[in-house]
Design a protein that fits this description.
The chain starts with a strand and ends in a 10-residue tail after the last helix. The chain has a 6-stranded antiparallel beta sheet, covered by helices on one side. A 5-stranded antiparallel beta sheet has the order 9-8-11-6-13, with no helix packed on it. Strands 3-4 form a two-stranded antiparallel ribbon. The chain has a single domain, classed as Sandwich (Jelly Rolls). It is built from 4 helices and 13 strands. 14% of the residues lie in helices and 35% in strands.
Amino acid sequence: MQLNRLAVDGAFLATPDIHPDDRGHFLEMFSQPAFKREVGHELNVAQVNCSLSRRGTIRGLHAVALPSQARYVTCPQGSIIDIVVDIRLGSPTYGEYVAVELSAGNRQALYLAEGLAHGFAPLTDEATVVYLCSTTWAPGREVQINALDPELNLPWPATPEPLMSPKDRDAPTLKEAAERGLLPAYSECQELYARLGGLAVGGERR
């Protein structure tokens, strides 16, 4: 398995080695040694979530307030576009995003460090998403940004009326969330990464 850094600091795309034969194929969906080698620390898995979404759905943008939650996202059935947005105040890439396709075909996974937000939408009639979480669900600590924020202008699949939860549809824009003091500070995220033994400013390992 190989992990490659993406344009948003703290986001990685994991590409597994797929071994096909006449029965089908085999791969490692997650490798702790490979993860630690690239990210700089192990991924502590405290919860595993699974969701099924139909075409036209947009889930997100979601994050968790500090000490936050890291996520490792895969799509074992169907295909999705997953979009990571840097919502860390003071970050060199604040307000920027990276979009990747995760699918049952490419078997890739997306890792996003604490403090980053993400959302996804199916590219097929249905898609199943499984994600490993470094912490358990914490009511009251969720951070939500409107996925349709016109200033972010995210590349969601064209659909007349996206299917969204009421909470997602009513979420603030990135600017509004910043004004309300809802966003994590990049400096505090860097301190967290250092305690984990991970990445420092600019992607250099501490």
